[in-house]
Amino acid sequence: MTTQASGDALVSLNGVNKHYGQLHVLKDINLQVKKGEVVVVIGPSGSGKSTLCRAINRLETIDDGDIAIDGKKLPEEGKDLAHLRADVGMVFQSFNLFAHKTILENVTLGPIKVKKVAKGTADKEAMALLERVGVGHQAPKLPAQLSGGQQQRVAIARALAMKPKVMLFDEPTSALDPEMINEVLDVMIQLAKEGMTMIVVTHEMGFARKAADRVVFMADGQIVEDATPEEFFTNPKSTRAKDFLSKLLTH
Amino acid sequence: MDAVIASLPEYWDGFLRTLYLSVISGIIALLVGTLLAAMRVSPVAALRGFSMFYVEVARNTPLTIIFFFAAIVLPRLGVKFEQFEVAAIIALSSYTAAFIAEAVRSGVNSVPVGQAEAARSIGMTFTQVLGFIVLPQAVRTVIPPLINILIALVKNSSVAGAFFVLELFGYGRQLSNDYGDQVLWILLGVAFFYLLITVPLGLLAHFVERKVAIAR
Q1: What pTM did the predictor assign?
Q2: 3-state secondary structure of B121
Q3: Average pLDDT over residues A186-198
Q4: Domain housing A99
Q5: A2, part of any domain
Q6: Quick check: A92 and B117 CB within 8 A?
Q7: Residues belonging to chain B with any Cβ–Cβ distance to chain A shorter than 8 Å
Q8: Cβ of A96 and B43 within 8 Å?
């Protein structure tokens, strides 16, 4: 579980700031994520971790600083931004599967419309992905007919279908019933093992211990600690992190 | 009653013209209205501003004034047309488009924002997000208000009768003059032929609404 040393940063945030009116939600964020790295972002709610995650594919705009993916700065709007987003997979807390499309169509839509992949090829690849996340037999159904855990796994398959360079997970298990959390985490752990670059905002400390290369702890819009899971969980440096962890571990 | 039966050919001709005016104006208004709604939710501030301005002006101006503008002012500005029907179509569709734009916009807003975010995340452009993800889901909520607007359009087309276009209402006026003693029957006949268009529209609304239901 050591940080991989090869190559430059795949995702790089430099001096990123964001305000919601008076509220300073991201304060001078600097974060570099290398290829193949799994970075888990944790912290109390309202600490800005979801905003950080969403800023990386510009679902949230930032006030200043810059964000680059694979050396390319995030474009402001339009076609260039769309191209760049195609390389960044995103998994949401509330799944956000396209409600009017079947499971299979949810996965093939991106490849067909954005990457102009032939339908036959897209269908075949999508089925393979759905099998991989364990929902292959659900392909002809509509999202509403699936359980939350199944929907979230489809959402992961949908993101993977674009063959992204990096995957962002914005609290992927927070909206799930407890018994469905593991089926989603298992898929994510598998993905991490296969070398996918991942930035995961989560409250699942088990996942952080098992799959993360680094843990980034945020509080009040700032990155307070950036350490290996070992270091962070056994020997947190800041009082903020100690406080946060003590609250978690008493249960 | 016999005045109505004697005038059936006129009624039929007026009915067809009203239908023609409504269908053509309806199609143009649907296209322009959807475009205006798309502009209203677009990331380009200038497009949003234009759409808002257009909608506010068009829907807050009495239809008769828009008719005057299309039939009398436009020709003076150099826009020439052979028949007043063209002016009627311009007036009806530009007026109705404003209402359609508002209905479509509220439909777009009814689609959870996560749907658009997910679509953007897989690299779709603004038009793709709207065309493949948001509008197809907005249709369900938009159909009932849209049909209301189209029914209003059919009835609004009667204003054209006052601008020398011989449609259902125009014939109605003419026939009331010809049969001064049976005005009530003549007007009931006119109303009946309007119902012949508007009632099926309402039934269509029910049908389409059930057809496009989406489970969430």
Answers
A1: 0.84
A2: helix
A3: 94
A4: 7-247
A5: no
A6: yes
A7: 43, 112, 114-115, 117-126, 128, 132-133, 136-137, 214-216
A8: no
